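Researcher: I'd like a structural prediction for the single chain below. Treat it as a standalone chain; there are no partners to consider.
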Amino acid sequence: MAKLTKTMVLSDSAFLADLILDIMDRNLYERANDCRWWALTPDFRTILESANIDAHATRKINTILKQINALYTVYTNLFVYNKDGVIVGVSQNSQEHLIGARLSNTWVESTLKLSNTSKYFVSEFEKSPLYNNEHTYIYNAAIRSSSDESEVIGGIGIVFDSKLQFTQMIKESLSSPKHEMKKDTLFSVLTTQNQTIIASNNTNLNIGDTFSMDKKFFMLKNGESLSEIVEYKGDYYALGVKCSKGYREYKSSTDDYVNNVYNFVFSYISNVAQTRIDIQEDIADIKENLVAQNEKDSLEIATFMVGSKWLGVKTQDVIEAMSIVALNSTLKLDEDHHFKGTMIYKDSIVSVIDIQKFIQEKYNGTYTEVIILKYGEKGYIGILVNSLKNIASVELENIKPLDEYIIGNGTLIQSVVFPSKDAQSQDVLSILNIEKIQANLVEPNLTHMTKKSF
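Model: Treating it as a single chain, here is the predicted structure.
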């Protein structure tokens, strides 16, 4: 069997992961604003400046916090504490037993050291008695003296209802009429950088547990994404992963708060045990006459390599493979552009493109061949490749289409073929969609060419 190499789909495959993270960052940006704004409440500052806080003052703080919490239901509790970390007021009647308790958390100490009103401090995503001993984030801001802004006299803490709010973000983002019957085949997992699960709509994954995935995903930097086919708990999935990028100044280069959150969106493709392939290899060179046998239950796939990615197209769509040295003067864009110009083949214009950026491949080597593919009745497309492979006969039932709702409608990959359990390699063969190559990469560039040598 030819070596099957894992093929990543386009960066568009992470668009749902990006959507959920964008909603999350926008939501938590408001939490950072809330605590800083409420820390400026004049009554809080006046009461905390007094030597003794009596029952009347406590009721006043409680009343104000209750009024705020009634309008902002994303919080389970709001509380005010003095410069010693002692809670002096809460927003919920059920939490009044906390009044007088001294907080020893590191985030309290850090909050009381904040330098100005633009700063805030957030707890780690951790269990807290302030949230029924479940995991959450607590946002804090320092309360400063009215007479001396440099003096911190206490702080305000707001307990984010993370379990409900994060789950709702995922649910609303993944809701689609197209997937009403496929709820168990599409799920998202939000995690911290240390792989702690923040939220998931997969009932088998618990908040606070460690999410066991390849470490490479947690090395993504702010805004970076990765998409690929993975095997997870006995099934194949199209996976999109994204690292949060923040919103406006929140978690930006001007913000002290650093907290990378990772979103994994899984879309079910097939069960590993039930996915069988029977690839019969033909040693015929792809340059020779490639005529598919068109057997009833199988499809002939002509294959080739672009960098480390093993790709395929239906043999009936392959016209010829030509050596790149045979190309003469042609029209060409700059070297970084995917459109590499045109060539003449049998009195027809062939657009030549490099697809490596659109399969998340970084290939710095030398291309050796141009595979000419048929498009429509009379059209041709040329794809640069660095090596030609064999022809595979694949059973139709083993060709698994990718869900465009997950991978994005701009992807060049339309389906995948998985190896058998006893195969030497457990990677994936990806089949290209010629129509999308033409529509997305060729046609938009035909009017923007400049003449150079290939």
